[in-house]
Amino acid sequence: MNILDMTAASLGAAIKKKEVTVMDAVRAVLEQIEETESTYHCYVTVDKEGAFRQAQEVQSKIDAGELTGPLAGVPVAIKDNMCTKGLLTTCSSKILGNFVPTYDSEAVRNLQKAGAVIIGKTNMDEFAMGSTTETSAFGVTKNPWNPNHVPGGSSGGSAAAVAAKECFYALGSDTGGSIRQPASFCGVVGLKPTYGTVSRYGLIAYASSLDQIGPLCKDVTDCATIMEVIASHDPKDSTSVKREDTDFTSALTDDVKGLKIGIPKDYFGEGLDPEVKDAVLKAAEVLKEKGAIVEEFDLSLAEYAIPAYYTIAAAEASSNLERFDGIKYGYRTEQYHGLHNMYKKSRSEGFGAEVKRRIMLGSFVLSSGYYDAYYLKALRVKALIKKAFDKAFAKYDVILGPVAPTTAPKLGESLSDPLKMYLGDIYTISVNLAGLPGMSVPCGVDSKGLPIGLQLIGDCFKEKNIIRAAYAYEQARGAFVRKEEN
Amino acid sequence: MANIISDETIEYVGILAKLELSAKEREEAKKDMGRMLDYIDKLGELDTEGVEPMSHIFPVQNVFREDVVTNGDTRDEILKNAPKEKDGMFVVPKTFD
User: Fold this and answer.
1) Do B19 and A351 touch (CB under 8 A)?
2) In-domain check, residue A370
3) Complex ipTM more than 0.90, yes or no
């Protein structure tokens, strides 16, 4: 078997059995990058030297019996908003264009402790604000299924790198769908864990109450395996939750008998592409045939999630991004007169249009006189949305629906109308507001040849329910592979 | 469009956001923000009387840890990221006369 066709878990097993060396795996991935990166542009930084160095270190630890985990020696790509010590971390923004962190984010440290080899940093929408990876200051990433289309976003580089076999798995971050939507558009598996499951320490903040790190990978087994490595309680993140139930691979049982699955009718209304609808409902049928109890229900409030989200996310972003002031790190304008002019000019030249748009909106909704009407109102709606999900999960183990209303749009079609682009987040965003785990699993290909994603949503801390459903579905579906070009 | 953003409002928001917009950006920002607020106004359809604003989904109170230094001295590495530094310090523009 070609090394590049292996999943992360099967490569890890092959390395353990000495059928493949870590160096073989790293070379295979770097050769693939050499060949296809000029087409897809998944990475902001490829760390060739570092990868070779890590490969040697990890191999000797495996040989010495110090590293025995399932991912030891497997090359991984990291979204460029997670700090990596000594390795450029840009958030795909000009303002951090030269930023070299002095410490590792906790999720990256957990991977390193498990013997991961970091290949590089993946492209993203600037500061994770966007749904297409087109707002990056360092160029556009293309969808490996069809390079005329976007890979989705904001973790588009991570999703595309997995789909293009330029890594074996990747980390992304999800604030409003930024793992699940690109996973869907690129035909890979992606999971946003329950808020607080993966430490946000070293993740450059967008909207802190919604941000969560998670895996993008080739199959559900990889997803559960990676989750066991990156989930941890971290005292450095005050919102980190101490969990005892992180044995996610125990849910890989291919048994959904009696699992109660609810299909929210509100997720299948106007705006949903008929091909996406069909593929998702067919997947529900598969789970039903395997013994799950599937029924429709009214979730309610779906249409209020987007306005609530953009208010809260913009407010938090305006506060979080105040730190970029041209003093301690990052970009400083060439010419200025006085301190305040330096701040303003550095920020205006350093941030892109979408980031400025959200900072402005956030500053407005938090400003005196508007705070109650906009920001507090949105937080009240968030409470109602959470309550609606609580009610649903009193009845169901899993909520099933589409990830996005359409498959991947063409390059250049989305940014001209921001509001329309925001509407594409309608099925993913409420999951972040309610802190729930949500997963994207490929469930079909449309007539344009682009992949369709199935979304499985669980109650807080119930990742295992969605992993169980996803795994059972995947077993019935069989391999999901991209046809190579030519 | 129900929400008309005035020049004064954009000026004020620019001060809060510490952003300097060109004339063209300013006009676009007025239009964008107006449209977004029209959309956000949809939240007004919901009766939220008596609903507590939810900032966190879990009832997290203050989280404390011992105030112990765990990292080493990384001053030199940190300063390498500074746009301007001198004698182990960040250089900033004159802040007062």
Assistant:
1) yes
2) no
3) yes
CATH number of the domain to which B12 belongs: 1.10.20
Q: Does A294 touch chain B (CB under 8 A)?
A: no
Domain count across chain B: 1
How far is residue A134's CA from residue A171's CA, in Å, rounded to a whole number? 19
* DSSP single-letter state for residue B45: G
Question: Closest by alpha carbon to A207, among A162, A184, A250, A175?
Answer: A175
Domain for residue A210, yes or no?
A: yes
Give how far A126 is from chain B: nearest CA, Å.
17
Structure tokens at A407: 């498959």
Each residue of A158-203: pLDDT tens digit?
999 999 999 999 999 999 999 999 999 999 999 999 999 999 999 9
| Interface probe with B: pick from A102, A106, A332, most Cβ of B within 10 Å | A102
Q: What is the pTM assigned to this prediction?
A: 0.97
A408's CB contacts (< 8 A; 6+ apart) are A143, A145, A146, A149, A150, A151, A152, A185, A186, A450
What range does the domain containing A56 cover?
A: 3-250
**Chain B residue with the nearest C-alpha to that of A307:** B40
Distance from CA of A232 to the nearest CA of B (A): 16
Please list every residue in chain B whose beta carbon sits closer than 8 Å to the beta carbon of residue A365: 40
Is A349 a domain residue? Answer: no
**Residue B19: which domain range?**
7-45
CATH number where A189 lies? 3.90.1300.10
